[in-house]
Design a protein that fits this description.
alpha/beta, six-stranded mixed beta sheet, globular, Nucleotidyltransferase, domain 5, single chain, 2 domains, 10 helices, about 250 residues, 6 strands
Length: about 250
């Protein structure tokens, strides 16, 4: 019987072929499914790893395996394999700030970029995302919460060829507009206050609610809505998993 916060049989059939290990390896089917259900329980409830129910096995083993998958980019590869088609009509850019819990501080030196910064509300992380018109994520980036949207904008559209790139006033930049046009796309970005008015497709701009709804869905996962992880790689794993469950599976 399926419990709350666990994969359905249909979801498992879709995700199983993209998991590490060769078909027929001992533990690939049952162990991988139990492991992902354990991570889903943590992601949805926001509980500490030590509170993982005993039915999932040793919390420390699950935690270490989760971190290995994060460092190897497994969660991101699964999301990309099942995600939206990069050959798209509209690419929507946006970002959201996530408050960092006090447990997110104190990562050991040498563990790479933590993507933490002090913004108006305290320590936080900013999730930058590009989604297609169906609300499926195409590309992510994490920065400190104080960083401007333009910091990640160019990387989000790199090597993509949409017909339209849609963003709010935070993406109003001549440099970004030129880069969008060089990719053969049309920018749908209104001008900032105090800047001369720019013409843009107001009908297309209404699609911005798609990316806003995407953020709303992934923040139903408490490990995404509040950052508890000390490293950006660990937090990014939860962002990928929540995106996979909320918009694709």
């Amino acid at each position: 019987m399926k419990r709350r916060h666990e994969l359905t049989d249909e979801q498992w059939l879709r995700i199983e072929p993209h998991l590490p290990g060769r078909k027929g390896d001992p533990g690939r089917t049952g162990n991988n499914r139990l492991f992902i259900n354990a991570v889903l329980w943590i992601a949805k409830t926001g509980a500490p790893w030590r509170d993982l129910p005993e039915r999932f096995g040793s919390w420390n083993s699950v935690y270490k395996r989760y971190n290995r998958w994060c460092k190897r980019g497994v969660w991101q590869r699964i999301l990309e394999a099942l995600g939206g088609d990069p050959e798209l009509e509209s690419l929507l850019l946006d970002s959201t700030i996530v408050r960092a819990h006090q447990h997110a501080a104190g990562a050991k030196k040498g563990h790479g970029n933590k993507a933490l910064g002090r913004s108006r509300g305290g320590w936080s992380t900013k999730i930058h995302v590009a989604v297609n018109e169906n609300g499926q994520p195409i590309r992510f980036s994490l920065t400190g919460g104080e960083r401007h949207d333009m910091v990640a904008a160019e990387a989000l559209i790199e090597n993509l060829s949409p017909q339209y790139v849609i963003g709010d006033k935070g993406y109003d930049s001549d440099r970004l507009r030129k880069k969008i046009r060089r990719r053969g796309a049309r920018p749908v970005i209104p001008a900032r206050r105090g800047i001369r008015r720019r013409r843009y497709d107001r009908t297309k701009y209404k699609l911005r609610n798609v990316v806003e709804r995407f953020f709303n869905r992934i923040k139903h996962y408490r490990r995404v809505a509040t950052r508890y992880d000390k490293t950006d790689t660990s937090y990014f794993g939860f962002v990928c998993l929540a995106s996979l469950m909320a918009t694709i599976l």
